[in-house]
Every structure is written in C-alpha cells, then in structure tokens.
Design brief:
By secondary structure, the chain is of the alpha/beta class. The chain has 14 helices and 15 strands. The strands form four sheets. A seven-stranded mixed β-sheet has the order 2-10-9-8-7-3-4, sandwiched between helices. It has a four-stranded antiparallel β-sheet with strand order 11-12-15-14. Strands 1-13 form a two-stranded parallel ribbon. It is globular and about 60 Å long. The chain binds pyridoxal-5'-phosphate (PLP). Pyridoxal-5'-phosphate binds near residues 127 and 203.
Amino acid sequence: MKPVFSNRAKNIRASEIREILKLTSRSDIISFAGGLPAPDCFPIDQLKGISKEVLQDMGVEALQYNATEGYLPLREKIAKRMQKQGMDAKADNILMTSGSQQGLDFSGKIFTDPGDIVLCESPSYLGAINAFKAYGAEFVEVDTDENGMIPEDLEAKLEKYDRVRMIYVIPDFQNPTGRTWSVERRKALLSLAKKYNKVVIEDNPYGELRYEGESLPSVYALDKDDLVVYLGTFSKTFCPGLRIGWVCASDEILNKYILVKQGADLHSNAMAQRELSLFLDHYDFDAHIDRLVKLYRHRRDIMVDALDKYFPKDIKYVKPEGGLFLWLEVSDKIDTKPFLQDAIKEGVAFVPGNSFFPNGGVDNGMRLNFSNMDDENIEAGMARLGALLKNL
Ligand SMILES: Cc1ncc(COP(=O)(O)O)c(C=O)c1O
C-alpha cells in the first residue's frame, strides 16, 4: 500500500536536531549538539524513595485516569514559584503539559490556520518552528539584536502582514543564541502586541538558569492585558524524561488549551506529577537549581576560554549570561552544515545555525551546548573544532 498523507503530515519533515541526536548517542562522539541537562544532576536516589512513597500513599490516584488540568498540589506549587518571580499566577490558570513542547504544539493548533503567520526571533527554536509548521503556519522573522526583537521592525511587520496570529518569543537565554531581552524591549513587545491585538507566546525553559547579572521580569509578569501565554517546564531545571511542563494563561485562553489537551492525551503523566510535587515538598528546589547554576557556569566558562584558546580570531560570539547554549558565528565563507560532517569525522557534534532560521539564509552559525559534557570533553571537543576551523 502506498500511504496517502494529509497536507499537514506532508509538512512534517525530520528535524535536523533529531537526526543529529541519533548520532550523538554514540559514546565516541563529544556532543555539543543537544540541549541536554547534565545527567550527574538528576536526583536519582531521592526519586527512588519518592516513587515508592507515591505508590504507597497515593498509588491508586497516581495510576488512575486524572483531571486534564493536572495535579492540583503541583499546580499550586508552580503558581507560588511564579509569584515569587513576580508573576501574577494562580493554580486555576495553569494546565500541566507533557513538556513545554506540548504547549508549543497546542499553541500552533489553537492560534493558526494554514497560511497564517507567526512572528519569531531570528533565529528561533527549531522545535517550535517544526511544531507550528505542522499546522501550516508560515514564519516571518523579526530583526533581532543582543537585546531582543527590534521594535521598529516588529511594528513594520505587524503593519505589513495582516495574517499574523502569534508572536513567539524566548526572552531569557534564548535557544539557540543565549540572548536575553532587555526590559525595554519586553515592554515594547507588549505595547505592540496590545496595539495590534496579537497573542504573545512566551517560552521560558531557561530563565532560572542565570549565571550572572540580575533576573529580569518575564513578559508575562509585565503584561496587564492578558496578551501573554506563558510556557514553563521542569526539563532543564529537573529531569526532561519526566515530561513535565505547563501553560499559564488567562481563563479564556487556558480553556482552549484544556479542550485541546483532552483531545490530545486526556492528561499528562499523573505519577510523574506526584513525584515532582513530593520532591518539591521534601527537598530544597532552589538549592538544586543553585547546584545546576554553579556547574553550568563553570562549563560555560571552560567553553568560552576554549574559544579564545583554540578558535580562529575572526569568530563572533557573546558570552551568554545563562541557559545552555553558546552561539557562534564563524567566517561567512564557511557553511557550517557541511562543516558538521568534518566535525563528526573528528568525533565532535554541534548544530549548524541554519536550522534555526525558519526561512534559511544564514549559513555560518553554530549552536554549542555546554551543559551536558564534562570539563575534559569540552576542552577536547573545542580543541578539535578549533583546529578544524583553522585548517579550512
Ligand atoms: C526554547 C525551548 N522551548 C521548548 C523546549 C521543549 O522543552 P520540553 O518539552 O522538554 O519542556 C525546548 C527544549 O530544548 C526549548 O529549548
């Protein structure tokens, strides 16, 4: 049989990251490719005890069908954490999702019809681009500098395109560039979203992983007009395998997400939500994040020092103040996609920058992850990449 796929399915193609990630599971590859947390920070021993406790004390509830919204005590704890970060969040406005990736998928489903436009940073997160593309969305990239989207360009594009349905942003330690938006740019985004009546999808997996400087208010925290849908996740601060994320939005918007989730998977993993909830009760989560911050700051510094030591002098990069990624632009004579094949032959992987531009056009970028490899591997991998680049 020759299967006949829907137009939607035809829009879905293998993501470059996923293909590369397959390679990086090889033990002989030093991988700067994925966005993987450090495995040594997974609280395996604590979770052994907690899993047992969940099964003993609430085994039936953890294994039975649950409410779509998610486990209420966990939603209450998330609301409290958001409040501590200056956000006016209530448990009733939170829906648990299977990672924030599911929140992205639902956003595409709820806000876009084929041919509609998503305004995004340039570059932007590949997983979001792929999620929205599946619904036939098209992308218009807004000019973006070290402080975020440039408001004049955002406004020009809001004026020019009448089918804009969402503005998708990652204002804290962006994937892939590591950039953080200034407060002024966050406010400018909100005032334009209000003026043109557009929803803002704020994706914030990295905000708590700050290595220096002061925390800035999220766009959601600054929003007084219910313009923002906030996507959170425990993937980078806890364990991605548990697939625990959330959407926080106004009643009217959240109701749509709840209905869509009912059709997608009824509810997220009830056992995992209870495990996380008990972990938050029994252990100091801020201390856990402090440990991650110390480790990742150290690894970032090793990577940045190695850039200075081993890479050609004409590279451009900005040291990220947080998050998991370092973005690098090499000489514009180099296309990093074929260069990846050379790097893999030398046992090192990264993600070529072009994948993060929904409309292509920038070939000399590289995204390097610094959270997942240990000190020796970062040093060795960067030395190899640097030597290869110098020999091109
Ligand atoms: C910007 C951004 N959004 C969303 C996700 C998805 O995260 P998860 O579904 O694990 O919560 C990622 C993962 O790397 C990301 O970088």
